[in-house]
TrEMBL record:
SUPFAM superfamilies associated with the record: Dimerization-anchoring domain of cAMP-dependent PK regulatory subunit (SSF47391)
Domain RIIa: 51-73
Record InterPro entries: cAMP_dep_PK_reg_su_I/II_a/b, RIIAD1
Pfam families linked to this entry: RIIa
Matching PANTHER family: RIIA DOMAIN-CONTAINING PROTEIN 1
Official protein name in the record: RIIa domain-containing protein
Originating species: Astatotilapia calliptera
Amino acid sequence: MMAETGGVTKLDVSVLNAEQQEKLRQFKIKTRIDNERYLRSHPEVDVLIGDFLRDVLHKQPADIREFAADHFSNPNLEETILPKMEGNSETN
């Protein structure tokens, strides 16, 4: 069963039995660990997202989807990100 709260769908885990709830909890933990491991092994993700968010907040585009598409399909994106990656590795 799902409940709507301010446009966000929230799952009602109380309909699951104890075993299902434990499996769900373990799945969530494993997913978080896997995601953290991936992000740690790919520091470029942090630089890409940080650069994108700075650009969004600075320019405040009216059409965020179009802005995101343009930002991430920029043929010069690698040249923009690489110096920032090198700067991050020096501070870590």
